[in-house]
């Protein structure tokens, strides 16, 4: 494959940027224009680094500044050439802290046509840093398929036509073969057939099994005709302001993850324990929210789903991310059944739920295989579960006929689900309608079929839980500006002034709790640290950041930064046409469980009051969804007031 364009950053530019920059930064952003086929390095100032940090902090600001329509009154759509695709690291990426090899993807997503923030790990962030860049900003659209190749000062847009039609694993293998590199020496993030065919919930997958999944970011990459980004582990230096301090903070984080009662299972098994634990709470989504009883799934034996037995079912091969000691993200070999001998990536909890329980499947081998097939076709496994489960229910009830779909699809049919995946990812037959995502497909069918669909009115779908027993997550998901949760559920909520426990079915308590957590997740997603290794005390993370950069970063400042970032994303979402009227669950998503631990708990009866409380606590206008002028002023975002409020500011 020959390069289309090669433009290396001038050595003098990189060197001059390095003299004044904080520790933890490479000092340059790489701007790639696919229309013009140019690549150039852009130094960014220490002041901007301190203001935006990186990750979603940087990405949110780029989206706000660079995706407005030319008259400034609206926002470009997800498929417009002026949309940006930001692949950003943070100041901890590449340093000896667990889980700091990943990236944050920010764009105007195909699912909601609004801002996106989604993360993945592996080696991407580390390799990019050692090539001299903190982030990649992709703009424009190519007429031909290209991939971006980065190797220190060599930056090339190369012909990707031979890669078209390959799935993500095949793409990675092809680029390994072309470059003669493999493993951590070459990080490859790519799209599969779903992204090429602009499936609204297409994802971006990298380093065998790591997925930036939310809001159709893979469709954006497909629309730009960018098949992949391949980054060689560079040779440039990366310094920390206080190397000893970074190691000390990293040791604190690792010790906490290994020993804290609420984090240890994550350290040992990743998210595997979630299947059994969430089933006991009524939070495991079963058969498209039609039941909360695992006994209603054919062949279900929950003892086989305990984390140790789940892991022992497969032949394991270690596959840790850069500089990480967490025991998850393994590669596995299936030892039983029709797929015996196949290599798969060990599903995280959401893979087990989306490819298993949500579609009524309890065959561990089949579910693991289907999860990997989703990664290879490259779709969001959560939305895939909601889509496939919805189709199964609709066909069972006669809302979708066998003639429409082309075959019969029953609960638990993993092979049938795989057939449907191929139809959707290639937009074949009825799959073309389903490729538009749950909300749009449900609206097209209408009637009782729509009432069965799980989605948010903005167009996104929730993570792989039954949020009818996790009200804080449903509220967070529906009010989020980025098509996924913006607050999360920290291990140590008291550290940031929140109660250790709340009544999960008291709408007032839930709304105050979700509002009180606001800020932490956006802060952590700006650092280049994994969501799993950040499940520790925020003070430890702030110490790592301070030692890396030389800044004195406090917990209070971290929360304020995160709130600022969330508000900037909110401003972009409002410009995209999002309103408070969209912050509602669909009929099925907000329904009342008919059985299980949360039976009879009706969130919809409290929803309006929950929104009232949440809006008041975060300082947003209830009617419009806009941050109030006082809120903007308190966060140092006065400059947003005029665009949001005009002369009323």
Give a quick precis of the structure:
The protein is α+β, with helices and mostly antiparallel strands and 649 residues long. The chain contains 27 helices and 16 strands. Helix 8 packs antiparallel against helix 23.
> What does the average pLDDT come to?
94
CATH superfamily of the largest domain: Aldehyde ferredoxin oxidoreductase, N-terminal domain
Task: Categorize the overall geometry.
Answer: globular
- Fraction of residues in helices? 25-40%
Task: Order the strands across the largest sheet as they lie in space.
Answer: 1-9-8-13-10-11-12
Low-confidence stretches: 1-19
Main sheet characteristics: 7 strands, mixed
| DSSP strand content | 5-15%
CATH topology title of the largest domain: Aldehyde Ferredoxin Oxidoreductase,  A, domain 1
What is the count of distinct domains?
3
Class from secondary-structure proportions: alpha+beta
- The tally of beta strands, per DSSP, is 16
**Number of separate helices:** 27
CATH-scheme architecture of the largest domain: 4-Layer Sandwich
Q: Terminal Cα separation, in Å?
A: 55 Å
What is the top-level CATH class of the largest domain?
Alpha Beta
Radius of gyration based on Cα positions: 23 Å
What is this structure's SSE topology?
Blueprint: E1 3-6, H1 11-20, E2 28-33, E3 38-43, H2 46-52, H3 55-66, E4 85-88, E5 103-108, E6 115-120, H4 124-130, E7 135-139, E8 146-151, E9 154-159, H5 168-179, E10 186-190, H6 193-196, E11 204-206, E12 210-212, H7 217-223, E13 226-232, H8 243-259, H9 264-269, H10 274-281, H11 307-312, E14 314-317, E15 331-334, E16 343-345, H12 349-354, H13 364-377, H14 381-397, H15 402-405, H16 414-425, H17 431-434, H18 438-445, H19 447-451, H20 471-479, H21 507-517, H22 520-524, H23 538-549, H24 555-575, H25 607-618, H26 629-634, H27 641-645
Parallel strand pairs: 2-7, 8-13
Antiparallel strand pairs: 1-9, 2-3, 4-5, 4-7, 5-6, 8-9, 10-11, 10-13, 11-12, 14-15, 15-16
Helix pairs in contact: 3-24, 8-23, 13-16, 20-21, 21-25
